Structures are given as structure tokens and as C-alpha cells.
Amino acid sequence: MLFRSVNMSIRTSLKKVLPPISITEQEALDAGDVWIESSIYQGKPDMQALRDIPQAKLSADEQTFLDGPVAELLGMIDDFELGNEKHIPQEIIDFLGKNRFFSMIIPKKFGGLEFSPYANSTIVATIAAKSGAIAVTVMVPNSLGPGELLMHYGTTAQQDYWLPRLSDGRDIPCFALTSPEAGSDAGAIPDAAIVTKGEYNGEEVLGLRVSWDKRYITLAPIATVLGLAFKVFDPDQLLGDKFEHGITCALLPKSHPGVELGNRHDPMGVRFYNGTTRGQDVFIPMDFVIGGQKNIGRGWQMLVSCLGAGRGISLPAMGVASAQSAFKGTVEYSFVREQFGLPIGRFEGIQEKMADIAGKTFLLESMRVLTTEGLGLGVKPSVVTAIAKYHMTELGRDVLNSAMDVQAGKAIQRGPQNTLAGGYSALPIAITVEGANILTRNLMIFGQGAMRCHPHLKDMVDLIHSNESSADAEFNKVLRKTIGFSVKNAFRSLGKGYLPFLRESESALPEVRQYEKRVNSIAAKLAPLADLSLAVLGGDLKKAELLSARLGDVMSYLYGAMAAIRFYEQRIEDRKLALPYFEYAMQWSLQQADQAIVNFINNFPNTATRGLMRLLTNTYTNSVKGISDDLVRELSLASMQDNSVKDQLTHLVRVIPGDGNDINEQAFKAKHAVAHLLSKVQKALRKEPVVPFISFEHALNKLQEKGVVNAEEAAKLHDYNEKRKLAVRVDEYTFDLELLPASQTLTAVDGGKNAA
Predict the structure, then answer these.
(1) What is the pLDDT of residues 662-671, one digit of tens each?
(2) Of 434, 516, 583, 713, which is the active-site residue?
(3) What stretches of 156-233 adopt beta strand conformation (E)?
(4) Which of 267, 284, 305 is a domain's end point?
(5) Is residue 434 flagged as an active site residue?
(6) Predicted model pTM
(7) CA–CA–CA angle 125, 65, 393 (5° rounding)
(8) Of 177, 370, 604, 737, which has the fewest CB atoms closer than 10 Å, so is most exposed?
């Protein structure tokens, strides 16, 4: 009895101390599924479950679509010209609708393509590697919006009418959530509807009188149907005894009286359609509410449960596409571009950037594949998709920044031959939308992760705030389980922190085992750190974003490391060639996770707890070594090879004849084909230099006259040199910025003799 009363006081005390959970917060916590990330949080990554996930592959229909309509679309896009225009060409919009690009997630029975998340990601990323504007145009209808909401929550009548129209492009959707006064704090949106009666189609019906002012709405300027989120109030109690019913989602045709669509924003000069929508006292019947009257007040629950596509597929796809495009262009340029008689990729300052580009591109593709495989299982892992959204877009930005540094003057000059500028302008869009990255990292990853991945925490919080008579008894049971869980975590951390032989690995590959053991060791540290933080700080941890974000980082980087292991074991065609990529990705991920733990403990506000944390986790300094210079050199040289690994890590970049990627690739392959001849020429020039050198063409002609190279060899070298000059060239314009063709800007200097 005494034990019961004591614990009652604990529960009631916690109820007074802990901040209340808002309805929107509660619905966010309840949304989505828990997947393999829970095993990371609990300190024991489930590697067997990871390896047992079915491999995602493109179906015959998906591959046909990629090789057919997608390839045709890429041939229609001139991203440079698009950036100089005010509108996306109507022929492209029509092509997208006709070929059902807007219906990849819609079931076939409604006329959609019903593609897998892996296919959706692959298609969107392939388009993004060519044009961010067109990629965004495609991804939005296949992400969070009317289509997704209708599929899961629409009435039969709504699905039968709208989904076929969305599938074949007769209607273009947008979804409006963000207002000038409320973005991240969706529960505070001022857009409101009053339950009332009004006239619709000549009849008096029950409905809503809605007023709204929204911004940042993608596709709004060209949308024909508007998804709208707003709060519902019922002052006359026409729906019951409640005054406020909460966030609600409705679907309004553009043609409906009072709907304002058309004004545009200008996001970074990227020409996708983004803009505003407004309405004042617009009457809509209850039939416009998605799912009908019964779904009034369920809007936020509906929205957060459908976030997986945007956060796990579309936006990460932009990050991966940017990285693969940057990787391909940078290694090819670094191999072809020479200074001081060497490819710039042989200089260690460049190699540091190239290795980072290559390793992170490997990591990004690994995470893309694993995340979409999870979504393909039918789960909606809210924490994993938040990890994907934040880290994959940020890694894409890291890679792009490094590529800009390497390509330097070529990178900053806009023109049709530039392969970086478009992605550089577009990627901040992915970082900003669907929950800005700062919000995603600081509030969502660990905030949701702790509540969803801890086996007992959510139950404890629910019971603390419960008014049920049985809450105390149930709380006692959960408390005992929680204490037992924490004790196990502490002993696991102690064992793996101090006794390396306890760190297990299930991999059959020796090169993987050391990293898998380290993954298990770091994960074992995460669990007691999270337990102690929650015990000491309680509800204040919610406000301590600098701390909680670091715990989220640990979980995120371990998820990336697991993805890299799976990708290396199951998807790599030649592991020997891929080993430096894998090692860099693993070492970087583990290093970041380790540093996050060190920074977390060093900044924990309670001195005694800080000491206990160090003791339990054996964390007194960094335990993961930094990436060695030897690995940097090895990976940078490996990345400049023309092999299957490079092909795998650039497969999203479809080369179009005559575009910048085609020009770079031709020069890259041509140099590999004549590498032995170039070595011969360089040896000859060192022995007997051509004076004056004037140009490579001139020197080569002199060497041919001397018999150092024959006519056939000289022809191959001249061909390579022409491709090289085109690859290192940058676009030129007249004084009035009229584009000049390459033929007018490339001049051969050959001492009076024209090359082959």
C-alpha cells in the first residue's frame, strides 16, 4: 500500500511538472510506424532484420517508364533556358499529364501508375539530376497532397471522381498548409472556417464558411484543385456541443467562387510554380471535406500520417541527385583538367574534396535505397523519414559545395554546359520545405524517436497525463519495466564500452565486421545517455534542443552506417573496387556519431550526471579515429577510374547527347582510352621538349613528324584533345549576354598545321 501511494505521488508530481502535450503534438507522436530505427535507439541494432529486408527492384513497367517517358522528358528539358524564362513550357506540362507523371502513387484502378517508393525515388531523382524545377513539379503531386490524402481518407465518391482526374492530368493539385503567421507551428494556423448553412447548387446545405491566406504553395499558380488546411469552429453547435473542432482538410476546385490562385513567388530563380492562395468567407459544402463531415478535426492526424512520401522519397531524392551529378561531373573534370602537367585530381587539396564527395555519395545512395525499401514494406517510419529528409538534403549540400570548390571557375559560370549551377540553386528548396531542416533535426528526430522508439516511454507519458482511475496501477507496472530497461542499457554500455570482445558482428565479410562491431558499440552508448537525459531533465529536454539534437544525430549517423553496410553487402557488384568508398562512408558516419556523443556529454548541464555518463559509456575523448590521408588519396584516385562503382553511384544522371554531362563524359572516357599514349608523349617531351610548345596540338604534330607517334595514334590523341578542350571550356556570351556556340570560342593553335 505504501509503495502504491509513493508511486501515486510520483505520477501526480510528474503530471504537474511535465509540460502538457498539445493535440497537434500528440497526433504527430501517434502517427507513423516504428521500424529498424527503434533497435538503434534501444542500443542493439538489429542487423539481421536489416539484412532480411527484401531488396527493392524496378518492375518491368517501372523500368519501361524510366527508359521511355522519363528519357523522352529529359530530352525535352533545357534547364538553362528554363531558368531564363518565366514559365515551364506548356508542352512539358502537357507531356507530364499525358504520361501520368502526376500519378505514380495512385492505384491502377483509378488510372494511376501505382509505382513502388523505390521507383518513385529513382524517377524523381533522375529528373532532378537534369532539372530541379521539373523534378519539383513532378514530386509534389506524388508527395503530401490531395492524391495521398484522398487515397487514405477520401470517401468513395471523392476517390472515384478526383483520382482518375489527377491520374491523367486533367486536374493539377496543390496543397496549402503554411500561412504567413504559422509554418512549423501548424496548430497555430489562423485560417478558419465557421460551421454554417449556405447555398450550393441551388440548395441550402450544411457547410463551412472559410477564410485563408497561404504562401509557399507549390503548383498553386497552375493548380486546378486546391487542398486546404484550416481550423473549424462551430459557434452555433450545429455539429454537437464542441466549439473548436481542430485542423481540417478540404478539397476545393479552382473554379469554386471565392478561390484565389495564380500569384507567384520566385524561389531562387528555379522556375517551378510556387505561390499564394487566398479566400475570404468562401462557402463550401461538407462534401468538400476530405473524407466527409466525420473527418472534421482530423486534418493534422491525416497530414502527419502521410508525410513519408515527401520526407522519405521526394526531398531526399533531390539530395541524392545533386550528389550524383556533382560526383560524376567533378571526378570527370578532375581527371581531364590539368595544371602543372598533372590532372588536378592528383593534388592533395583537391583529393580531400573528391574523397568527401565520393564517400558521401556512396552513403547517400545507400540511405536512399534502404529508406525506400522500408517504405515499400508498407510501413510509415516517421523517424526514419525525418532522418532521410534532414541528413540526405544536408549531405547533398555538402557534396555540392565541395564540387563547386573543385570545379571553381567552371562551376560558377552559368550556361548550358554547366552541370552544377542548377542543382546549387535548387537544393536549398529541399532543405527548406516539408519542415525546415533546423526544425527537423532539433525537434523531430530525437523528439519523435525517444517517444516512439523507447519501449515504454510513450505509455508512461500517456499514463502521466491520464485521468483514468487505473492510471496509477498501470503507471507502476510501466515504471518497473522502464527501470529494468534502463539497467540493462547501462550494463550493455559498460560491457561493450570496456570489453571490446563483447562487440558482436554477424557479417560474413571481414572488412565489414570491424565497422559492424563499432556500430553496436556506439548504439550501446546511446541508450543510457537517452535514459539519463530523460530522468534528469524530464520535460526540459524538449527545450534543450542543442542536447537532444545531438542524440538524434547519433541515431541518424548509425542509421546511415547500417544503410552503407547493407548496400555494400547486397548491391555492390565489385566489392574490391568499392572498398575505399565503403570505408570512407563508414568511418565518416561513425566519426560523426562519436563526436555527437562527446559533445553531448561535455555540454550536459548536470556535473554528477555528466560524470556518470562518461563512466557508463567509457567516453572521455573521441574513440573513433579520423579518416586517414592514405584513405583520402586512395579513394580520390579510385573515383577517377571508369568502372562499375562509378556507374552505380552516378546511375541517376542520364546523359543526353550534347549536354554538359555528355561533354564531360566523352572527354573522361577518351582520356582513359589514350592514357598509354599520353604517357608515351609525356616521356618523349621530357626527353626532348618541343620549343616553343605553343599548344598540345602543335607539340603532337612535331612528335608525329619525328615518328614518336604514328598517324593512327596521333588521330586518337587529337580527338581526345578536342574533347578535353570542350570539357574544360566554359560558356561564353556577347557583351549583351547572347550565348556563343562552342565553335566560335574554341581556337586550335597548331603552328600552321591542322590536326586530323
Answers:
(1) 999 999 999 9
(2) 434
(3) 173-176, 192-200, 203-218, 225-233
(4) 305
(5) yes
(6) 0.93
(7) 10
(8) 737
